[in-house]
Amino acid sequence: MEELKSQKSIKLSSSWKNRKEYHGMKNTKFYNSYRSMITRCNGTAGFSSIKKYKDKGITVCDRWRGNFKNFYEDMFPSWQEGLTIDRIDNSKG
């Protein structure tokens, strides 16, 4: 039983390590905008985000969901401090 437990831990640890992508932008405003967008649309930012985003069917596109590198490639060239990410048509939810 102990051997199986350790093998499982190793497998989970190594797969978690492989998932991490080190981009060096974790503590930047740009990365924070990305993370905030993801948590709002997933409904993990609290009850308010569930009502304002998730319950209305507002999602993040497949290219950006879970892939900061793609978001960076698409948005960083035109990014300026102070800009925000908004829904295309707020009246539709």
Give descriptors for this structure.
single chain; 93 residues; mainly alpha; globular
Briefly summarize what is shown.
The chain has 93 residues and is mainly alpha-helical. It is built from 4 helices and no strands.
H-E order: HHHH
What is the mean predicted local confidence, pLDDT?
A: 75
**How many strand elements?**
0
Tell me, briefly, the overall form. globular
Weakly predicted, low-confidence segments: 1-18
Can you summarize the main beta sheet? none
Distance between the termini: 51 Å
Q: Specify the structural class.
A: mainly alpha
Tally of DSSP helical segments: 4
Strand content: under 5%
| Residues in helix, % | 40-55%
Q: Compute the gyration radius: what is it?
A: 17 Å
Please give the domain count: 1
If you had to describe this structure to a student in words, what would you say it looks like?
By secondary structure, the protein is mainly α. It has one domain. It has 4 helices and no strands. The chain is globular, with a radius of gyration of 17 Å. The protein starts with a helix and ends in an 18-residue tail after the last helix. The N terminus is likely disordered.
List the helices and strands and how they pair.
Elements: H1 2-19, H2 29-42, H3 47-52, H4 68-75
